[in-house]
């Protein structure tokens, strides 16, 4: 999903949360986490291209799927479960719960928008596949498992 869509979705959900619960902590942490999870794209870009970031190159690197390795350290179902456990253990602290909600809608919308395999959003599964983008998102790269020699 594109950044502008995450911003819009996060703003809508955060507005609904504020209207329903009158909690700035819940609303703000949901808004920020729903957007800034994508900072892991910057990490992947820098690993592939070094320190200089050109805006046009950065977006084409992901939107045109020019990457061979894709780590996306913050995009993982595992974090959702961890955040859920932390929210429960803090008796649903508004900041933690907002983080959980923002993270949850971000990763779910990415999964649905990108029409990915459920496993593609598992950090452990990506690690086991050496973060190889051809294995993680094979539908877009003409990947054939027999090509993996």
Can you walk me through this structure?
The chain is mainly alpha-helical and 149 residues long. It has one domain (3-147). It has helices at residues 3-21, 24-36, 39-49, 55-63, 77-89, 94-113, 123-128, 133-136. It contains eight helices and no strands.
Brief overview, please?
The protein is mostly helical and 149 residues long. The chain has helices spanning 3-21, 24-36, 39-49, 55-63, 77-89, 94-113, 123-128, 133-136.
Helicity range = 55-70%
Tell me the β content: under 5%
Segments where pLDDT lies below 50 for 5+ residues?
A: 140-149
Order of helices and strands: HHHHHHHH
Class derived from helix and strand content: mainly alpha
SS field, number of helical segments: 8
What integer is the average pLDDT? 86
Global shape: globular
Integer count of domains: 1
Between the first and last Cα atoms, what is the distance in angstroms?
Answer: 32 Å
